[in-house]
Amino acid sequence: MSSEHKKHYIVQPGGKLQGELRVPGDKSISHRSIMLGSLAEGVTEVSGFLEGDDALATLAAFRAMGVQIEGPKEGRVTIHGVGMHGLKASDKDIYLGNSGTSIRLLSGLLAGQDFTSTLIGDKSLSGRPMRRVTDPLAMMGAEIDSDEGKLPLKIKAGNKLTGITYTLPMASAQVKSCILLAGMYAKGKTTVTEPAPTRDHTERMLTGMGYAVEVNGDTVTIEGGGKLTATSIDVPADISSATFFMVGAAIAVGSDITLTHVGINPTRIGVINILRLMGADISLSNEALTGGEPVADIRVRYAPLKGIKIPEDQVPLAIDEFPALFVAAACAEGTTTLTGAEELRVKESDRIQAMADGLQILGIDAQSTADGIIITGGVIGSGEVESHDDHRIAMSFAIAGLQAGGTIQINNCANVATSFPDFIGLATKAGLDIEEFNV
Ligand code: S3P
């Protein structure tokens, strides 16, 4: 897949971001549209689908399990649902590339099937922790072999699942969703309590497709044996992808950019809250609800930023946005401190270390801690940094170029295609001087 060939970025310093842009579809919602659309009765029409490698890996997995799926074509996908018990065994191992969401959600869903599945992925995914899903699934009665909690995962056929009451050890929407999806196939009720609110797209989409989910404060309950009804799903633009432009406009003098039709689900807007605390000028317009998800146009105009202590309650709400927020912190006046974010160490890369190392190369005082980072704002210089094959690290250092004193080279950026196809095209249109080259 995308990481087989090497792609580096070169960003020339300076510039500002301007205009109106629509970034690609939300990754989390795109995954879930394929999964739930496949299990529904009837035909689900999806628009705004993210045609990135991660969501395409989920799509390919369901095709391999016998679901007829047309597209994607210009963000449109048509899924001919097979019903809750209509999936068939894939005739080969299911390759999920770089995608943690695919593998963790699929694990729950496949634990309830009457066929065995083997899930594999790329180097990054193969190193990520899976006990967080295999442990609760085992409590439900699933039988899953792993390599000491790592891939491959072999999910055995025909184990009858029973509902559990489970408190998540970490704030993770992937683990919550995994258990809820298994809960659809379990006897009785499954209840998940989360230590802090995490993205609730699974709950919203289940409800939208007629599967009852009871939400009570920090607890979600689902009862096995229900069914899903096909619907149309309009996937909003991904706030995680919009983040690179929001931060870019917040740090580059003279910027004024509007990101249209962006998902502003309250469980995803930590980036807006944190940037505003830092002094960013952000305004929302055209607020609407589409398919159970709130959307808005987000306008960001340059304003000087100041360092802050990031409130810990914002961490799960901005979990994917920290690499870009660290660039904002590097351009802010004073010190920014992040704590309570140890989950960043087990993402597509160790995002705390990857960003601390890269920012230091660029001349910024960035000190990693066990669960966060301390960044003192300064002058971004030039240099060659590593993305560690992590899409969000690559794009974060790309926007740092707007405030850099010289050229930044970012190595191994092919995985940007997992979440943001044509990042280069949109970033160039907005005003970033960026080129890619293959090695
Ligand atoms: C996601 C949940 C988050 C997030 C990931 C997408 C999801 O992961 O980082 O990019 O779609 O449920 P965790 O559950 O590991 O926090």
Describe this structure in words.
This protein has 439 residues and is α/β, with parallel strands linked by helices. The chain folds into two domains: 7-25 and 236-438, Enolpyruvate transferase domain (UDP-n-acetylglucosamine1-carboxyvinyl-transferase, Chain), CATH 3.65.10; 27-234, UDP-n-acetylglucosamine1-carboxyvinyl-transferase, Chain. Helix content is 29%, strand content 27%. The protein contains 13 helices and 25 strands. It has a four-stranded mixed beta sheet with strand order 23-24-1-25. Strand 8 (144-147) and strand 9 form a beta hairpin. The two termini are 16 Å apart. The mean pLDDT is 97. The protein binds shikimate-3-phosphate. The site of shikimate-3-phosphate has 11 residues, from helix 6.
Largest sheet: 4 strands, mixed
Q: What's the count of strands?
A: 25
Q: How many structural domains are formed by the residues?
A: 2
- Cα separation of the termini: 16 Å
- The CATH homologous superfamily of the largest domain is termed Enolpyruvate transferase domain
Corresponding CATH architecture of the largest domain: Alpha-beta prism
CATH topology of the largest domain: UDP-n-acetylglucosamine1-carboxyvinyl-transferase, Chain
* Lateral strand order in the biggest sheet: 23-24-1-25
Output the CATH class name of the largest domain. Alpha Beta
Uncertain residue segments? none
Number of helices: 13
Mean pLDDT: 97
Give the proportion of residues in helices: 25-40%
**Structural class, judged by helices and strands?**
alpha/beta
